[in-house]
Amino acid sequence: MLRLSAPAPAESKCRLGAAMEDVPSLKMSDTRYGLYDPARETSSCGVGFITRKDGQQTFDVLRKAHEALCAVPHRGGMSSEGVGDGAGISIDLSLVFFRRLTGRPDLENGRFGVGNFFMPHDERQSGRAERIIAAALAEEGLDILLEREVPVDPAALRPAAVRHQLAIRQWVFAAPARCTTLAAFDRAIYRALLVIEAEAFTDPSLEGFYPLSFSARTQVLKGRLNSNEVLPYFLDLAAPDHCVHTLYFHTRFSTNTDPHPSMAQPFRLMAHNGELNTDKKNRLSEAAIARARNGRIVAPKGQSDSCRLDQTLQSRMMQDDLDLVTAVVSMMPPAWENDATLSDPVRAMLEYFSLYEEKNDGPAALIFGDGEIIGARLDRLGLRPLRTVETAEYLCVMSEAGQIAFPPETVLRRGRIEAGGMLYWDHREKRAYGTLDALEMLAARRDYAALLRAARVELAALPEIPAEGQGSPLRYNGDLARHQRYVAYSHNQESFRFLMDPMLDNGAERISAMGYGNAINALSDQEGGVAKYFSQRFAQVTNPPLDSLREADGMTLRVALGAKPNIGAPAAPQIVVASPILTHLDMLKIREQTATPYRRFEILYRPVLDDAAANARAIERAIDDLGEAVSLFAREEGGIAVLTDRHVARERAALPLIIVVSAVNQRLIAEGLRLRVSLIAESGQIASSHHVATALGFGAAAVYPLGVQFRAEEMHDSLV
């Protein structure tokens, strides 16, 4: 094994080492301070790729990529001292370069891999980190050919930027004889990566220890750089024999994030421009999937939304056995529901994906690549630019047009990627796939129509309820008059005047200022229900809300109820409903069907009116008992669980709906059962779109607003 040190000047190396301990930006925080909240890590940026269509590795790819990176410094962020907030590249492994570096002229593509790592901030832990990597490689039989520090040129940066960089340690290793295919080699590398991450991301003494890339196909080089500094900074990229056929890049404008080298992009399989507004939901879903498989997700400290997306993408490929393009399409599907131009096989494929995959919604422009595939995709809303240009030799997709000055006479076509669209180049087939070609190709690989028929049934296809059975789904079993039940559900005259009645009169919400204008609960003597505590959580931005009617091309309210496929629950179809807001006839249909398990759980408790502490304990016991009952149902059957406060009475008070939904949801996640059951909140506490949003946001799959149903019946009776 060769051990090489970087040929950087001693003074520069000394400055780098000495700066490690005293630069705040090099140590990521998971603590809130001021207006910064690490849980809201998102960023906007510039992305792009360039690839040689013939697959020949040449130095010209790096030269043209540098031209593209120099054209978009405005898409990155820069401090007053000129320090970039993050930029980097991902490139295929250069065969000629690594043959020279390792002294192995017999090295072949697919038979060696490269791992690039940021080492721990505490230099005393570097030796331990190296031993962890060596042990993980040895466990998989991956013989180390070379270990070195990636050489850099600090003179390429502004003086203030040097101390913000982290050294990259590189391992080059050989494929074991037992790995006869590249796919087998990939899996051996992935297993080693998981072992390394399990220690790197969980031991506080190893903070900063981070794998940039670990692959037999590509390597990532990145740092706290401006886009035009990336190629000059890494000296490997100036070597004339460093020839590659594909490069994709990222430069980051950090809006509300803490810039840090490890969260700079690209990541291992992708670069992402935008932000993932569904990130919290996606994280909960991924955690539920991991627990259902008796595993857990180990994430780096301060993980951004883009980093989480990359981790999920790699998991889909390695653990779910999906190819890269299928994984990208299933995780970030187009808006297919109302697109009549899609073929039936494509619609069946996308609907099948929707039954088990939580969408990653942006705005998001995604560049993805694994050394054989390189592509670009926009999410279904298409709110980030991606421009395309193709010549006889090159295919490029970038955030802006004209980043590379190809002579006009060489350009075959220019264009852009539209909402929900994609373009990728397959180096194995030596051809490009556009959106429709790619979707048709993927849909032809499996009989998704048959899979779909077995996995779901439309609510509209369930047997109709006879007219004589269309009364209330269940008779009221309590001792309160209707007006008393309103009070029990925390409603008052304002609930009618400003929330329910306007919607029932004209089918629209009452127009008002964005947000909830009433006093917050802590400053009001009107409780108003737990949902009111979260009124401002849904009104923090100036963007208007998406309209499911006027923007039907880009969104849907469709929901699938029941256990998700492929997670070990007894086989039963999911019931697909057009909207998460159910009517009493919908509830009757769901109750009367027998294919999907269905059970009701009362969210009531016996209140202790003269002892607040005892009442609190009674609420806690009731919620714990409810969580246990729903968990047992999920474990034994799975399906649809209805949480209902229909039978509220003098001796049976309603538990706070939002607390109950959240508690049951988290209990199911903790026990690895969340994907085996869908929660329907049948509650009189729901009186507005905000109540619906909070119930859905905290874990319900659908709601049946009893209070609104009562009010509609009351208003109808008054007109008769």
UniProtKB/TrEMBL annotation:
Residue ranges that the Swiss-Prot or TrEMBL entry lists as coiled coil: none
SUPFAM superfamilies (alphabetical): FMN-linked oxidoreductases (SSF51395), N-terminal nucleophile aminohydrolases (Ntn hydrolases) (SSF56235)
Domain of life: Bacteria
InterPro entries associated with the record: Aldolase_TIM, ET-N_metabolism_enzyme, GATase_2_dom, Glu_synth_centr_N, Ntn_hydrolases_N
All copies of domain Glutamine amidotransferase type-2, residue ranges: 45-428
Family: Belongs to the glutamate synthase family.
Name by which UniProt lists this protein: Ferredoxin-dependent glutamate synthase 1
Species the sequence originates in: Methylorubrum suomiense
